[in-house]
Design brief:
By secondary structure, this protein is an alpha/beta fold. It contains four helices and five strands, in the order E-H-E-H-E-H-E-E-H. 45% of the residues lie in helices and 17% in strands. The longest helix has 34 residues, at 106-139. The protein is globular. The mean pLDDT is 84.
């Protein structure tokens, strides 16, 4: 089964380029012009990676990433940005930042592959952290309300 990618970019030319490059690389690709439309794809499919532009109208790329991390923590995130800078919040931390303009088409494929591999490699650790947090919550005494 081919990995599924959602490309979210408001620029049709960038969206089309990313879609074609990733389809040619062997991925199943859905494209969307807005963050809201991109998130709707998740309701119908298991998505391996989201490639999202940082600057989108209405719902920004950072907001899309935060929502994906919250609802689908195992989905890899690639942030496309002409102005990459350090991101302070965990919900805004992508697996890979893909700088624009693209130097070559191979860098697009490499970014997606790297993000998917990073998410796959971190899955056991993520599951362990979730389990530890659940156990700690179970054994932590609850405060009595007076």
């Amino acid at each position: 089964m081919k990995p599924r990618i959602v490309v979210i970019d408001d620029e049709a030319s960038v969206r089309d380029l990313l879609g074609k490059v990733l389809t040619r690389a062997g991925y199943e690709v859905d494209v969307a012009a807005t963050g809201e439309a991109g998130l709707e794809v998740f309701d119908d499919a298991n998505i391996d990676c989201v490639v999202v532009d940082k600057l989108l109208p209405a719902m920004t790329g950072l907001e899309v990433m935060a929502e994906v991390r919250k609802r689908f923590p195992r989905t890899a995130l690639v942030l496309v940005s002409a102005h990459p800078e350090p991101l302070a919040l965990d919900d805004e931390r992508p697996d890979v930042v893909l700088p624009k303009p693209f130097k070559n088409l191979a860098m697009i494929e490499d970014a997606v592959r790297e993000a998917i591999d990073a998410r796959r490699d971190s899955t056991p650790l993520t599951q362990l952290r979730e389990r530890v947090a659940a156990v700690v919550a179970e054994i932590t005494p609850r405060r009595r309300r007076d």
